[in-house]
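Please fill in the sequence for the structure shown.

STRUCTURE ENCODING:
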């Protein structure tokens, strides 16, 4: 019998899942969530949650910050920056200059 990795958890919706980290996000609930704006669909779930947590829901709000400020957010890594930069460029926007 295969041993499951992580701890069995049950979310408030009743989903049962195993997690090895302390991250409280239910993978089933996360799959069903729709991002409030289109550009958030093009970044990873941790990056999306980081932006949502900071109430950065539009490209204009994103453009008001520098890349350094964005990288300081928990959940945003260097791999998210090119995707965000492209989304901004598609709308004629850029990150704020330092």
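FILLED IN BY: designer on duty
SEQUENCE:
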């Amino acid at each position: 019998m295969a041993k499951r990795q992580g701890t069995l958890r049950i979310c408030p919706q009743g989903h049962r899942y195993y997690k090895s980290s302390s991250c409280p996000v239910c993978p089933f609930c996360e799959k069903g969530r729709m991002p409030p704006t289109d550009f958030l669909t093009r970044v990873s779930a941790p990056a999306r949650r980081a932006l949502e947590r900071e109430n950065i829901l539009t490209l204009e709000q994103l453009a008001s910050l520098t890349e350094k400020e964005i990288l300081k957010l928990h959940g945003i890594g260097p791999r998210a920056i090119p995707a965000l930069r492209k989304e901004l460029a598609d709308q004629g926007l850029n990150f704020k200059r330092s």
